[in-house]
Design a protein that fits this description.
Blueprint lengths: L4 H49 L5 H11 L3 E6 L2 E6 L7 E6 L5 H13 L5 E6 L8 E7 L1 H53 L15 H56 L4 H29 L8 E4 H13 L7 E6 L5 E4 L1 H22 L3 E9 L3 E8 L6 H5 L16 H12 L3 E8 L2 E9 L7
Parallel strand pairs: 3-4, 7-9
Antiparallel strand pairs: 1-2, 1-5, 4-5, 6-8, 9-10, 10-12, 11-12
């Protein structure tokens, strides 16, 4: 019960209601004390009037009048004359005098609390105004014990009534909160539990229908989260299925390319000068294709294999990349340029770096070719004390909005129509494997610039 929202709300409600009743109780007990004293003054006035009407009252009748008024002495001031109307012996000296003709609220509360918590029976003098203006003032002497007993009885009645009101109000609020707040929240929790059991089932996605604004906002946020999560799970399943298919295709393709690799040995022995010139390129391409198939199979089992670092002559590697792309550039009128210091040497995995630069150059080539206009792709490099920086720039139309929003995300960040976005995703993974970064520096109608930063320190490869 205490661990539930409604149970804690019940306890807090009862506690605050009791606090409110306590704040009401203090001034009410003070008012009761004033009314009690005023009643004694009124009784004493009536008794004194009876004596004034007949001055020959016997001592026994006078004592009876004082007993009924519950006072010891009655002093009435009329016409500026102070007159002891009724009197009897005082059992103790007068300890305090209270004037209730024009009391302040703070004084009343202070005197009431003092009397309530002081168990001693004292004799006090009380001064008040006579009723119906039957004099200037009236004062009486009386005991405090009956006053305190009356205040305790009144306080117990008030506290009992307050506790009952607090309990009934708290119970009503308890059931109201359960109906208005807790039950809708439990409904949301049930939706979440059912969705957790079958997140792929779109029927388990919550439909916002709460009437409370805050709860409806929570349902709307949950609906959005569940929808996005269901789509992500479906996408992941498709990626898993595609990965399995790619692994099978790569396995078969590797076998085919291995056989083709054997055939190139005979091609290299040809006497045709053109064949002898192109044969090494063919062998290199087939070797990279075999390596890519093996890497794909490895990626299907775990992640991209870590780079095998070595010294790479960047100018030669970029020349090899450009030569691969130049074979298809004649039809598209794309010019390839490189601005690489001749002796610039990087510490990297040559095959992985080749794939990164090839992906960027090929994307730039395809982007320019899609426009049908001539263009340029430039690969440049520089270095500083901490990094090698390789830049691939083109004069293409720039990346579309979708590609910018989902850059480096597989199957979402394609830079051209029909593209899968795998090229940039793989390139970014390979660069991260070197401890570096692949960033989009700029894109727009004037072209696109990608920048590869590879750290020189070994600590970045930890």
């Amino acid at each position: 019960m205490l661990n539930t929202l409604s149970g804690r709300f019940l306890i807090l409600t009862a506690a605050f209601l009791m606090l409110a009743e306590l704040l009401i109780f203090v001034p009410s007990i003070a008012r009761f004390r004033v009314d009690y004293l005023g009643d004694r003054l009124e009784r004493a006035q009536i008794a004194s009037l009876a004596l004034l009407a007949d001055e020959m009252l016997s001592a026994d009748l006078e004592a009876e009048l004082l007993e009924n008024a519950e006072v010891f002495n009655v002093v009435l001031r009329r016409d500026a004359m102070r007159q002891l109307v009724l009197s009897s012996p005082l059992p103790a000296p007068i300890s305090a005098t209270y004037d209730i003709r024009d009391p302040g609220a703070v004084v009343l509360i202070r005197d009431a609390l003092h009397r309530l918590f002081d168990p001693q029976n004292e004799i006090i003098r009380v001064i008040g105004a006579p009723v119906r203006e039957a004099g200037l003032l009236i004062e009486v002497t009386m005991e405090t014990a009956p006053l305190r007993e009356a205040m305790i009885r009144y306080g117990l009645r008030v506290l009992t009534l307050s506790a009952s009101i607090a309990a009934i109000t708290a119970l009503l609020l308890f059931f109201a909160v359960r109906a208005v707040v807790v039950r809708p929240i439990k409904g949301v929790v049930n939706y979440m539990q059912r969705y957790a059991a079958a997140p792929e089932d779109a029927r388990q996605i919550i439909s916002p229908k709460a009437s409370l604004k805050e709860l409806r906002e929570a349902e709307t946020a949950l609906n959005k989260m569940q929808t996005e999560l269901t789509q992500a799970l479906r996408q992941r399943k498709r990626l898993a299925d595609l990965g399995s298919a790619v692994a099978r295709v790569s396995h078969d393709l590797r076998n085919i390319l291995t056989s083709a690799q054997l055939f190139t040995d005979r091609i290299e022995s040809s006497e045709d000068p053109l064949v002898r010139r192109l044969a090494p390129k063919l062998v290199g391409s087939i070797t990279r294709a075999v390596s890519l198939c093996e890497s794909t199979l490895a990626f299907g089992r775990a992640e991209e294999p870590p780079p095998t670092l070595g010294l790479v002559q960047l100018s030669a590697l970029v020349a090899d990349v450009i030569e691969n792309e130049t074979l298809t550039a004649d039809e598209t009128h794309v010019e390839f340029r490189r601005d690489i210091p001749p002796q610039m040497t990087l510490r990297a995995d040559s095959e992985q770096l080749f794939r990164v630069i090839l992906n960027l150059v090929r994307n730039a080539h395809q982007a320019i070719a899609a426009t049908g206009r001539p263009g340029q792709v430039t690969v440049s490099a520089r270095e500083d004390d901490d990094n090698w920086v390789v830049t691939v720039a083109d004069t293409g139309p720039g990346l579309p909005d979708k590609a910018r929003d989902h850059l480096f995300q597989p199957f979402q960040g394609g830079v051209r129509k029909g593209g899968s976005g795998l090229g940039l995703a793989i390139a970014a993974d390979l660069v991260r494997g070197h401890g570096g970064t692949l960033d989009l520096r700029s894109t727009g109608p004037d072209g696109t610039v990608f920048e590869i930063r590879l750290p020189k320190g070994d600590g970045a490869l930890a």
